[in-house]
């Protein structure tokens, strides 16, 4: 049996710590009755079923990556997993921190921001991991691409939810909470479309759109929000329509990105690990034309094969 390396053990232990924290720590979202002030950017309860999907796939990823030795997997795949590992561990650590700080004792204007920072850290860490993932075959798509992309997309939206919760906690002004909502909608659209197009990743866009449509559903049926926002029913209906439209807009871009006519394979490589973006130098020591072409493409801040990350 191939030897399991330290980074593989670290990946597994961090994921186990994440799951234990989620199951054992009572959080503000553990009960149906939220203790926070009214949050205008709140998804309908059905949307949170995605957590079961995410953790099921991440459990598969955790077990699968333990089997990826140099004997079984290609050197490029092992290198990808090594590069993903620090970001994966950081994301799980941030998830544990979020569980510890999204509790009653932190539900104050002076402390609730900590959980929002932790949740933002999850999304940022998963973005770093997402920057390197590959899906060159069905195995990598199932065990690597899907779990990290789903979690990245969902925590992008969840971080916005948490920040809106913080705004709702520090102020009672409906106008300020409305501004926070509109800013969040703008960020969700920019990230949802930008990452989808520039990283050629329709699953990310679909996940963000899932959250936005769920926010629209919640807005449309929230009697408390209708009573609080300026303009009452008309404003709430307009917000729900806007949220639904923006969700569908992201879906449209994701569908176009996934369509076979949306790219030329030779000119627009998909989901390639950064280490594979540089071909070996020729005998003269100069980079090959393909190396230079791929290097120029990797300069984009948004692209998956960039070393910077989203």
Describe this structure in words.
With 310 residues, this protein is mostly helical. 65% of the residues lie in helices and 0% in strands. The chain has helices at residues 6-24, 50-66, 75-101, 112-130, 138-170, 174-198, 202-221, 223-228, 232-258, 289-297.
Number of distinct beta strands: 0
**Uncertain ranges:** 262-310
Instruction: Give the overall silhouette.
Output: globular
Sketch the major β-sheet.
none
Q: Keywords, please?
A:
310 residues, mainly alpha, disordered C terminus
Give a brief description.
With 310 residues, this protein is an all-alpha fold.
List the helices and strands and how they pair.
Layout: H1 6-24, H2 50-66, H3 75-101, H4 112-130, H5 138-170, H6 174-198, H7 202-221, H8 223-228, H9 232-258, H10 289-297
Helix pairs in contact: 1-2, 1-3, 2-5, 3-4, 4-5, 5-6, 5-7, 6-7, 6-9, 7-9
């Amino acid at each position: 049996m191939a030897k399991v390396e330290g980074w593989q053990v670290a990946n597994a232990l961090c994921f186990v710590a994440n799951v234990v924290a989620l199951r054992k720590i009572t959080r503000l979202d553990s009960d149906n009755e939220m203790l926070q002030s009214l949050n205008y950017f709140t998804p309908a309860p059905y949307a949170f079923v995605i957590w079961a999907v995410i953790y099921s796939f991440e459990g598969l990823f955790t077990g699968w990556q333990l089997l990826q030795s140099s004997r079984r997997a290609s050197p490029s795949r092992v290198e990808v997993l090594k590069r993903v590992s620090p970001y994966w561990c950081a994301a799980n650590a941030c998830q544990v921190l979020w569980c510890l700080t999204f509790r009653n004792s932190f539900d104050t204007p002076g402390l609730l921001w900590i959980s929002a920072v932790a949740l933002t850290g999850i999304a940022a860490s998963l973005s770093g991991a997402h920057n390197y993932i590959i899906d060159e075959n069905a195995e990598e798509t199932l065990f690597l691409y899907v779990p990290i992309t789903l979690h990245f997309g969902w925590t992008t939206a969840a971080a916005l939810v948490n920040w809106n919760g913080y705004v709702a906690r520090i102020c009672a002004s409906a106008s300020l909470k409305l501004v926070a909502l509109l800013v969040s909608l703008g960020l969700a659209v920019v990230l949802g479309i930008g990452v989808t197009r520039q990283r050629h990743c329709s699953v990310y866009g679909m996940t963000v759109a899932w959250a936005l449509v769920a926010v629209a559903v919640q807005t449309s049926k929230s009697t408390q929000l209708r009573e609080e926002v300026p303009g009452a029913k008309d404003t709430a209906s307009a917000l729900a329509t806007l949220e639904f439209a923006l969700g569908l807009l992201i879906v449209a871009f994701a569908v176009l990105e996934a369509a076979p006519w949306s790219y030329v394979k030779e000119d627009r490589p998909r989901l390639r690990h950064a280490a594979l973006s540089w071909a070996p130098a020729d005998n003269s020591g100069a980079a090959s034309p393909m190396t230079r072409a791929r290097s120029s493409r990797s300069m984009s801040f948004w692209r998956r094969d960039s070393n910077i990350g989203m």
